[in-house]
Amino acid sequence: MAEVRLINVWKRFGDVIAVKDMNLEVRDGEFMILLGPSGCGKTTTLRMIAGLEEPTKGQIYIGDKLVADPEKGVFIPPKDRDIAMVFQSYALYPHMTVYDNIAFPLKLRKVPKQEIDRRVREVAEMLGLTELLNRKPRELSGGQRQRVALGRAIVRKPKVFLMDEPLSNLDAKLRVKMRAELKKLQRQLGVTTIYVTHDQVEAMTMGDRIAVINQGVLQQVGTPDEVYDKPANTFVAGFIGTPPMNFMDATITEDGFADFGEFKLKLLPDQFEALEDGGYIGREVIFGIRPEDIYDAMFAQVKIPGENMVRAIVEIIENLGSEKIVHLRVGRITFLGSFRAESKVKENQEVDVVFDMRKIHTFDKKTGKTIF
Q1: pTM value?
Q2: Could you tell me which of 93, 189, 68 has the C-alpha nearest to residue 148?
Q3: Domain count within the chain
Q4: Element (H or E) spanning 42, and its range?
């Protein structure tokens, strides 16, 4: 097995900077997710680790081996990096059976026939493909094809798995099933895995840690809980979470309130102290709170003083069965609340909502960086 390290890695395509000064360490046996919107540089980063792209600057290590360093003239080709890649398109050979597709990388390495047969059947058993070994790809469902692509990667026993949105062609129900299977499989094999996705639910449910990328820049690396509960900036806070975090401009008053113009919320003493220490009194900050931390006052899950209760108008209700996503408005300010299924709110009526002030976030207006 192996850890993967990127040190000050840049990638330019002409005038476009796809990856900017990337420093990332993936631990041995870790399931690392590269997460970000389309065009953020996550696939380019994965391709540089694979050896399909050469970095413009910086160093890439797989284990103790330096595999790329333009300044030293080092560039190890993909076949010598001991990695296996699974793509969004399954990239199976249509004329070959499932058995031959899985066996193909071993045949290229001239592994003895008996050893090939043993390993192919072992992997097929692990992935539930034993009954399908004699079928061709066209006779398989999307989920089965994806498992064959995984089998072809696993059979090589590489140091590192690289996966580029491997589940995005599957339907929603199958994706959920395959997410769990893939995580279980990675635990079983213990192979260092780097997985690219733009789907933050996939990232939160599968990753040991998540590297959030935007416009080629690494924004934050942390466990799913860390990036959710302690986002480094407004980008991470807004990108992680469904529905997304509410952002509102607020002025911090001398008497310890966040003043939104239409209403005020009382800050907790340690929050006020942090803002005072940062020189934010009398200044505007970005106030963030997740919809699940705004309650229908009738069903408030925590006892909170009335000064953190606000009367709002219900504009739209999205009923998800287990919860209601409620679009709320106070004057010109709009925000989302995630209410319990039992809530009886109706559109166009007034409702008292409670803000859980223990769960708020504040960000610097200019830099977008987290204050607390």
Answers
A1: 0.90
A2: 93
A3: 2
A4: helix 42-50
